[in-house]
Amino acid sequence: ERAMLLPNCLFRMGAAALLLSNKRRERSRAKYKLVHVVRTHKGSDDRAYKCVYEQEDPQGLVGINLSKDLMVIAAEALKSNITTIGPLVLPASEQLLFLFTLIGRKIFNPKWKPYIPDFKLAFEHFCIHAGGRAVIDELQKNLQLSAEHVEASRMTLHRFGNTSSSSLWYEMSYIESKGRMKKGDRVWQIAFGSGFKCNSAVWKCNRNIKTSTDGPWADCIDRYPVYIPEV
């Protein structure tokens, strides 16, 4: 079935390796501290479970079927994940505004526009799953992010394509290579996966990060960002 060949055109090969430690003596050497991990899994919903699904086509050939409901399911998973992570990272003022709006919608007028918290008050950097231009566009719009906030995601997609979850680490390397990662900066990584899953990781930078001389962007970072035309 030709539709099941589509993932072969979308996905690219990527990889990342990390060294994690929970030993106090490694604190002075660590670049980042893992502050929060929030995992959202919608596998109990058959529609979500099968929206990205490996199966045989009528000819017996194995491929990956992408459901037409994929973007809707991804949005639902993201909403659930953000609802969980919000209270962990947002300042009290943003949480109160969100709570007041929620109460107002329930008691006074359900047509009130829901308040979208300003996550820029909680993070300096955003690493968005580079699964496609539409994914980045939608998150930029809904989270009210600037072009610079999504620059790492767009440039990673432009250069490497959709490398799935490893794209987050190409993006982190991009920010480091640009010399933007400073001590105390907070990073929000948002990723999606089959199942259906939406996961968030929050990191805090322990020191000013020097520009890498051997990372994936070392030989070309001076050429980025590049202009990507609207299509």
UniProtKB/TrEMBL annotation:
Keywords: Acyltransferase, Transferase. Pfam families: ACP_syn_III_C, FAE1_CUT1_RppA. Residues 124-204 form the Beta-ketoacyl-[acyl-carrier-protein] synthase III C-terminal domain. Residues 1-106 form the FAE domain. GO terms for molecular function: fatty acid elongase activity. GO terms for biological process: fatty acid biosynthetic process. GO terms for cellular component: membrane. It is an enzyme of class 2 (transferase). This is very-long-chain 3-oxoacyl-CoA synthase. It comes from Senecio vulgaris (Common groundsel). The lineage of its organism: Eukaryota, Viridiplantae, Streptophyta, Embryophyta, Tracheophyta.
